[in-house]
Amino acid sequence: APYLNNLAQAAGKLWFGTAMDTTTAEPDDVDYMTVFNDTNIFGQVTPGNTMKWEFTEPTQNVFTFSEGEETIALAEATGKKVRCHNLVWSSELPSWVTDGSWTNETLLAAMETHIKTEIEYYGSGCWSWDVVNEALDSDGGLTSNVFSEIIGSAYVPLAFQYAYEAVQSLGEDIKLFYNDYSIEWAGTKNAAAIALVKEIQGWDGAHIDGIGFESHYSVSWGASQAQQEEAMASFTALGLQVHITELDVPCTAVPCTTDALTIQAQIYYDTISACMNTEDCTGMTVWDFDDKYSWIQPADYDGEGDPDLYYSDLTRHPAYTAVAEAIQGL
Ligand code: G3I
């Protein structure tokens, strides 16, 4: 079978990568780990959960980095880069953050400490950080969370300012990303994300290197290749690099029908092709590769499932070949 990371790097991209989660059964699953460890297939890893706030600072000023370190150790053992994920998000917040009685000043101080401590601890173990995740809701408004409620929209550029200060004090070239969904095609949310990036770029002391296109699609809908290329161009025009960060495409029912597998393969193909056609789209990552460990399980998502490149028995979906062809421009 063709090797996705080898092909991607031969074509000038940084990597073909995957998410994985050390808190699940994955690290003990020998067959899963055999595929994961194969650097020919995956040259990058994103920790699916373990660097989020609730894991890393469960109590204020008490930091627990061991789970995240596991991912970095796995990456270092197999020559993978790590896209560290994430510093500030509405979800997976410990209760001391969500339920704290904050003022603008105290919450900013807590956010600054969290961002700087995490960046400084993991250091060059992180190739990049998703500094702010999903700050916008589906209609392009600011997602309501403790940060937007107490600090207002300034929390986003301020997070990038704190992150940049940490990176500069380390003296490392760690890239800083904004990561979101439904920005992969022109529309209200894409426009709001462009405005947000411009706000960060115009903010004294802040810095942003790239934008993450989550790319969570479904066999019932995916952005076309042309739509995705147009959306990528709207960010590369601002000087950013683009990463596909969380690609997956569930079937509406499992097992996937033959027709669904064909559509699934086409959506993977279109997404990867858009990145391949965009010089500054530099990396491509799937949100795990084994259906067994996907976040989209039929019981939780109204029957939807099997969104990944490998079935639970680790045989490959047709989408795997489609991705290999897209990388090669076939
Ligand atoms: O670790 C516990 C386990 O002990 C317990 O038995 C089990 C019971 O539900 O829960 C386990 O934790 C879950 C964890 O995933 C590991 O499976 C959490 O409850 C669950 O909330 C967590 O969900 C993650 C979700 O983000 C929320 O953080 C998903 O795995 C993860 O794939 C998903 O990833 C997000 C990205 O970070 C941002 N973009 C969207 C993407 C998909 O939602």
UniProtKB/TrEMBL annotation:
<feature type="domain" description="GH10">
    <location>
        <begin position="1"/>
        <end position="326"/>
    </location>
</feature>
<dbReference type="InterPro" id="IPR031158">
    <property type="entry name" value="GH10_AS"/>
</dbReference>
<keyword id="KW-0378">Hydrolase</keyword>
<dbReference type="GO" id="GO:0045493">
    <property type="term" value="P:xylan catabolic process"/>
</dbReference>
<comment type="similarity">
    <text>Belongs to the glycosyl hydrolase 10 (cellulase F) family.</text>
</comment>
<dbReference type="Pfam" id="PF00331">
    <property type="entry name" value="Glyco_hydro_10"/>
</dbReference>
<keyword id="KW-0326">Glycosidase</keyword>
<keyword id="KW-0119">Carbohydrate metabolism</keyword>
<keyword id="KW-0624">Polysaccharide degradation</keyword>
<comment type="pathway">
    <text>Glycan degradation; xylan degradation.</text>
</comment>
<dbReference type="InterPro" id="IPR001000">
    <property type="entry name" value="GH10_dom"/>
</dbReference>
<keyword id="KW-0858">Xylan degradation</keyword>
<protein>
    <recommendedName>
        <fullName>Beta-xylanase</fullName>
        <ecNumber>3.2.1.8</ecNumber>
    </recommendedName>
</protein>
<dbReference type="InterPro" id="IPR044846">
    <property type="entry name" value="GH10"/>
</dbReference>
<dbReference type="InterPro" id="IPR017853">
    <property type="entry name" value="GH"/>
</dbReference>
<dbReference type="GO" id="GO:0005576">
    <property type="term" value="C:extracellular region"/>
</dbReference>
<dbReference type="GO" id="GO:0031176">
    <property type="term" value="F:endo-1,4-beta-xylanase activity"/>
</dbReference>
<keyword id="KW-0732">Signal</keyword>
<feature type="active site" description="Nucleophile">
    <location>
        <position position="246"/>
    </location>
</feature>
<keyword id="KW-0964">Secreted</keyword>
